[in-house]
Design goal:
Shape: globular
Helix content: 25-40%
Strand content: 15-25%
Strand order of the largest sheet: 4-3-2-6-9-10
Number of strands: 10
Largest sheet: 6 strands, mixed
CATH architecture: 3-Layer(aba) Sandwich
Number of domains: 1
CATH class: Alpha Beta
Structural class: alpha/beta
CATH superfamily: von Willebrand factor, type A domain
Order of helices and strands: HHEEHEEHHEHEEHEHEHEHH
Length: 282
């Protein structure tokens, strides 16, 4: 996948025409169960491939927490955040980003703890996949959410030309306000993915596997009650070290993603970009 081109102007116009600024989160995200096109069952691969239109593709996976406290983040992305990400990345020297949206929930309690789109470059299709996610709004009173499922899927079920052809890793971001669940049993993976040979995995194992072809980051959002807990940040820091990124508020997320992808030492995020901010990265 990855056909089409991204137009900032078209994206802004579409957002206005569809009323993303005025509609509620649940009006914009109208799925009331998992979209069949985003069901990972029997999905073998999602592919980010070079083409004549995009000869230097760069795979970017964005894994969104779709549990109760995080539903406002997809809404912010579709209103304006994704436009900021693509505009900044493409304007500063990465002409061919291809973005795949994943949705993660809680594999211990939710009906749809993993949802997967396709790698896309065009504004219309990116808008489609983002708004097709099902905001299940679940999660449970357990030890976290299933961010490790994003690592599993990226490691086991994606093929990306930037790594296969050029030895360049893609980027994988998960976004949320909870710890990651510590393990996932093979029977759960089989129930999600379909017939196949599976094994039990710990979060640390899946993080390491995803890092074979992606630079893997987690953006921890502090603005919720759960996100403000220092113990959660400390746990992520122990697992990810410098690959933990902290957002004081959801509006910071697009600029954290763009800055991380561009990796320019002299690039700064100004108050004009994100408003009044106290901290972008931990």
């Amino acid at each position: 996948m990855g056909f089409g081109s991204y137009s900032v102007e078209n994206s802004i116009t579409r957002s206005a025409l569809k009323g993303y600024d005025t509609k509620s989160t649940h009006e914009v995200f109208s799925q009331r169960s998992i979209n069949s096109a985003m069901n990972p069952y029997n999905v073998k691969l999602r592919e980010s491939r070079d083409s004549k239109e995009h000869p230097d593709s760069l795979a970017i996976v964005i894994g969104l927490d779709l549990t109760g406290s995080m539903g406002s983040i997809p809404h912010h992305l579709v209103k304006e955040g994704l436009t900021h990400i693509m505009e900044k990345i493409m304007g500063d020297g990465e002409p061919d980003p291809q973005v795949l949206f994943l949705g993660v929930g809680d594999h211990e309690t939710d009906n749809s703890p993993l949802q997967v789109g396709q790698f896309e470059s065009g504004d219309e299709l990116l808008d489609k996949w983002l708004t097709d996610v099902y905001l299940e709004g679940g999660g449970g009173a357990n030890e976290g959410e299933s961010y490790l499922l994003a690592w599993y899927f990226a490691a086991m079920h994606t093929a990306i030309d930037c790594h296969e052809k050029r030895g360049r890793k893609g980027f994988l971001f998960t976004i949320g306000d909870e710890p990651t669940l510590k393990e996932i049993p093979k029977h759960t993976i089989q129930a999600l993915m379909g017939d196949g040979q599976y094994e039990n995995f710990s979060a640390a194992q899946l993080y390491d596997k995803a890092r074979e072809k992606y630079d893997v980051y987690h953006i921890h959002v502090k603005e919720t009650r759960a996100g403000s807990m220092q113990s959660t940040i400390d746990g992520w820091k122990q697992l990810l070290a410098d690959n933990l990124l902290v957002a004081e508020r959801k509006e910071d997320i697009p600029f954290i993603i763009a800055k991380t992808v561009l990796k320019k030492e002299d690039q700064t995020i100004t108050k004009d970009d994100v408003g009044s901010i106290d901290e972008i990265m931990l």
